[in-house]
Structures are given as structure tokens and as C-alpha cells.
Amino acid sequence: MKTPSSRLSRLLKNKSDASAHERIRAQLEASSLVSNFRVIQKLSPGLDVLPMLKAEAYGHGAVWAARNLVAESGLDGFGVATLEEGRQLREELGSRARRIRLVVFSGAAHWSEEKGQFCEKFGLTPVIASQEDWDRFFSQGWPSRIPYELKFNTGMNRLGIHPGQARRIVRQLASLSSEWHPQGVFSHLASGEDPDCSLSRTQMERFLNVRSEFEETLGQVRFHLGNSAAIWNAQKWRLRDLTDLVRPGISLYGVPPWKSAPAKGLQPVMTLEAKVISIFQLKAGESVGYGGRFRVSSNTSARIATLAGGYADGIHRGLYEKGSVWLGGRLNRFAGIISMDLSSIECPPQAQVGDWAQILGPHIDIWEQSAKIGSVPYELLTSVSSRVQRDYV
Question: How far apart are CA 152 and CA 165, in angstroms?
């Protein structure tokens, strides 16, 4: 039988072996994650925080993120997108987080008896987000069996009950005991970064009407509206008076919620790096990669580094000749089409084989990087694939 010390030695050896084989790695900083959570708390005084951990916590690792945040004061629970994401979190967090709320934001859509049983088994809080789903949910008696939340469509027009149905739902619940009442009533903002636009004003008015219907009759329901962008505009959205909690997503991982938003102390949680595995000195007229799309201009030469990472790792193919990589103390352009496992960059004189080039992290403006390919930071982060070595520190 192996002793605990021998098991520990084996685990450390396995980690050492994996490190020796690293080609592309993502370093995840727990201290930055916790620091960002506390920044969000300071921007939302008096409000609880429901971190969004969907899509593997935006590519960072949902279980890891949850374990690092579960003991934080003011934590309301965790938000996920799918039932399976909720199940995984519930099982992996174990007994110390048995009572933590896990809210499933879209995975319960088109409600069924099977989904109800799944939520009941794993202690999940489904979001009911259509009138049809509510009618099934209510008629089958699920409100008295499991906790749930109601989402109203105030203008995003993806999911949500029509605000005009709020009064009808309240009347259905009014004569029933409080255990039938929703834990939360909420909506989602389409333009949280712009509280003054017409759509935002419309959403605010509709949400206030929904809140009034529930507040006057049911009393103890909690309300929420604020995503990361709204948190950054908390005063204009009147979040402290309007809501009971906030739902940070991208800001939790150290990314300001829109391109020109101030960081306000956020720190990037993920640093993505690829190893330099070869360096070529190319002469005028020589090319790099498929199709020879990058060609050294006449009367010059180019030093090109090959990185051990490509689009199968999450380095977006569209970054070719547009995106930047930090290597040798400066930003360098991608050179040549990014392939599945490899990519090439213009290489500074001091760079050597074995160096690590930063693709995402503190030296890269992720909003600028994503804008160059017509995308957003959310896509770049969630595209980091499972074959990338994760180093959690």
C-alpha cells in the first residue's frame, strides 16, 4: 500500500514530467481572481456577488475558480449556463460547499420533468425564462420542490418572460406559502456600458415595473440586473437601490467590461504562453508557412520564431499579421498563417529557442487583440483548448 508521502511524491513527479513536456501553457493566478472579486465588491457596496462560472469560468477552470472563491464573504453562489456545468461543480466542490447556490441560467430552457429531477438530485437552481416553461413548472408543482429564479425579458430578446406576465405570476403565487416563491427575479442588460441609451432606459423602466409587481405582493424576493458593465456604471444604474446582488463575468477574470473601461484595479488571471521551438533567419524573398503568405521584402532579412501553439490550442487563426505577441521585452507581429499546432512571429535579436512568448496576459491588451480579428475577449479566453497545460498558482 502506498503511503501518503509516496502518493505525494508521485504527484509531484507527474507534474514535473508534464512541465518538462510543456509546449504551450496557461498560468492561472488565484490571488488575482480573489483580488478581482474584492474589487467588484468595493464597486458594489451592500450587494452580494454571484460570480459567473459558465464555460469553464470563461476558460479558466470552473472548479478551480469556485474553490478559490467559496469562502469569500458576500458570495451569493455561482452562476453556470448548463445543467451539466452545475452537476460538475456540485460533485467536485464536495461537502464543504454542499449548500452553495448553483444557478443554471439557460440550461433549464424548455422545462421538463427530467430536468426537474436532475436539478433536484444535484441541488441546482434553474432559471425559468419563458411563459411556457413557467406554466409547466408551476402546474407540475416544482416551485414547492426546488429553489428557482425567474428571468424577464426587458429588451435583450433572447430568453425571458414578457414583463406583462409578472402580475399574472404574482397572483398565482400570492395565496401560496413562501416556499413556492422564487429566490430571485432578474433580467439581463443589452448595453450595460451605456445606461443613457434608449434601450437601457427602456430596460430600466420595464425592470422597475416587474420589481414593483413582485415587491408589493411577495415581499422577500431578491432582484438582480447588474453584469460587469453595469457594475462599472453602478451609480447610473442605481444598482444599490434597484438590486440585491450583482453577476460579474468578464471582470472577475481581470478584463475591463468594455474596450475603454478603466481597469479599476483588475488584474489578468490568465497568462497564455507558447514556447519558442525554432528560429529561422530568412533572406529577402523567402516566405513563412502555408501558401507563403508572409514574404520577406526585398533588400532586407527577417528573424522568425516558431511557437509551439496554433489554432487547436486557442490561438485564433485571424491573428495572422494582425495580432501581437510579447517576446524579448517587446510586442512582435505574427508572421505567416497560423496553423493547427504551430505559429510564427517576427523575432527580436535577443530571443532564443526555449523562451516563452506571451499571447494573452499583462503585456497584451486583450480588447485590442480581439478587436483586430473582429472579436471580443470572451472568445479569446474561452477558446483556450483543453490540450493547453494549465498551471494553477
Answer: 9
Same domain, 292 and 249: no
List the one residue out of 205, 273, 266 whose CA is nearest residue 232.
Answer: 266
Q: What's the rounded Cα separation, in Å, for the pair 3 and 15?
A: 19
Interatomic CA distance for residues 256 and 229, integer angstroms: 8
The three grid cell numbers given for residue 276, joined into one nine-digit string: 519558442
What is the average per-residue pLDDT within 362-376?
A: 96
The catalytic residues are 290
pLDDT greater than 80 at residue 3: no
The verdict on residue 150 lying in a domain is: yes
DSSP code at position 118: H
Amino acid at 152: F
The enclosing H or E element of 58 equals helix 54-59
Residues 232 and 290 in one domain: no
User: Is the model's pLDDT at 4 over the cut of 50?
Assistant: no
Residue 80 lies in a domain: yes
Average pLDDT along the chain? 93
- The pLDDT of residue 99 is 87
The residue ranges of DSSP E strands in the chain, in sequence order, are: 24-28, 48-49, 78-80, 102-104, 125-128, 149-151, 184-186, 222-226, 245-246, 270-283, 287-288, 294-295, 301-307, 324-327, 330-333, 343-346, 356-360, 389-392
Determine contact, residues 30/60, Cβ cutoff 8 Å: no
pLDDT digits 0-9 by tens, 284-300: 999 999 999 899 988 88
Q: Kindly write down the DSSP assignment for every residue of 303-324, as one continuous string.
A: EEEEES--TTTT--GGGTTTSE
* C-alpha separations of 115 from 109, 128, 131, 182 in Å: 9, 12, 17, 17
DSSP 296: P
The set of long-range contacts for 163-166, using a CB threshold of 8 Å and a minimum separation of 24, is: 163/206, 163/207, 163/209, 163/210, 165/131, 165/134, 166/209, 166/210, 166/213, 166/214
The verdict on 140 and 62 lying in the same domain is: yes
Cell numbers for 150: 425567474
Residue 203 pLDDT greater than 70, yes or no: yes
Q: Nearest CA to 382 among 58, 128, 3?
A: 58
Same domain, 170 and 242: yes
* Domain region containing 320: 270-392
Question: What is the band of 20 on the pLDDT scale with cuts at 50, 70, 90?
Answer: low
Band (97; pLDDT cuts 50, 70, 90): confident
Is the pLDDT assigned to residue 327 strictly greater than 50? yes
